[in-house]
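thread: overnight batch results

M.L. [08:02]
morning all. the overnight job finished for the chain we discussed friday. pasting input first so we're all looking at the same thing
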Amino acid sequence: MSDAPAAATVPAAPQAWPDLRGWNLYFLSKVILAWMGALDLHILPNLLLLAALLVPLPWRGARIARTVVAIPVAVALYYQDTWWPPFERLLAQPGVLDFSASYWLELLGRFINWQMVALLALLVCGYLLLKPWLRVTTLSVLGMLGMAAMALPLPAGLQFAGGGDATAAQGAGASGAAARGGPASNETLDAYLAGFYQQQAGLKTTFPPAHEGTPFDVIVLNICSLAWSDLDEVGMRQNPLFDGMDVVFDAFNSATSYSGPAAIRLLRASCGQTSHTALFDPVPAQCQLFANLQALGFQNELAMNHDGHFDDFIGDLARYGGLAAKPLPIEGYPRALIAFDKSPLRRDSDVLAGWLKQRQTASNAQVALFYNTISLHDGNRIVGADGRAMASDYKARAQMVLGDLQGFIDALEKNGRRAVVVVVPEHGAALHGDRMQIPGMREIPSPSITHVPVGVKLVGMGIPAAAGPRHVTAPSSYLALSELVARIYALNAQATAGDRNWDGLLQGLPTTPSVSENEGAKVMDYDGKPWLQLKGSPAWTPYPEDKP
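M.L. [08:03]
and the structure it wrote out:
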């Protein structure tokens, strides 16, 4: 009896690579948005996530566990791939927890980019249409590999436009940077910043001795949320207030995007620019603009169209700015707006008219007034005739504020009051927004927020020149304002326009390179390009200014 033939051995079928299924939408959306410039795609972690999802797993439990782990990783990675700063930076914004509910809802709506929502809806429709006919996973893999290939370093002259860190990014102006320390890198940018602060530490305004010239007042009008970019956004770059100035600073850097630090920097204008942390260190009185004016015989005064309690603004003025004057009472003026923190705001024309009325009856020969208005702050609502608060766009409020300030200057001229009026915003409103910040958020002091319009008007001190304001085009900051005020006092701003020594007043004003800081972010110009460093990271990256 013969043995039965042995059964043939069949080799096991290889485990098939899985289909990405719904994950295709995740990766395809990233490919499309990165190609459009709306994402700063970190290719390596995305490829690792893609590979992990493609690995064949024969056990259903293992596949479920992989999906459970992958979902939070994918969400975090998507946020990392946006241009937005770390989420904790939003919560670190001063007074963020005091925002009104209506303001929170307004901010939430700005996070939604309806153009992107429409694009993703089309992507979903395309996926559902192609899914029965094509292996969409292949498109996802090829798309991610294509983005990886574009991220590879290429020879000079063949590099793709886009972001990257300071070590890799070399702009066309490398020769100019080399003259100051070499092409941009983390090391050269750190050294440049350290050198900047070292140079600024040796600068100060030397005020002249007190003299008995014709008395005049110094009036500083400090405006929250007004930048050149905001005026451009609402078509108001040309406006009567700044067109009527004697001097306009075209390249003034407020150095911060928050009110408290901006006010401190202005009040400490008589010394060079310091780091953000140094703002809260003691300084000699010679650094404080209003202390210097007080030494010349000016009586310090304070007025605001708000109560000053948000983020302890009024406390900052006294503790760090050396301005301890009691604010002008405003309780008797009607509410004009409801602030973003639900506090009442008064109209600037009412408060300034009230100050001028009491000034006319005061005995002080010379007064230095610091006036602060937050009427333009994001999230404010205007009070209607019926007493109810309603939304008001920025342009309407800007027309109101600039008109009120112009009316105040007109009133000064009408009553013959001699004064030097300095209009200087704290920071911009971030109306436009950019890739890293939604409109209205100012956590990062980007150039569009810190580049503010600053003007100086000599009231009752001669007839302004017919040619309009003189423009200071060099990069400037607060030290230039302090120096200009000191020079005006020294020359006592002669009575007629022809006698004004404008060359003497404006020539050689201090220049200040563009360096800005908040508590969690540094932005500075290096070789004509803004660079960003976030708290907790040693890396400098090019700031993505343009909104996609």
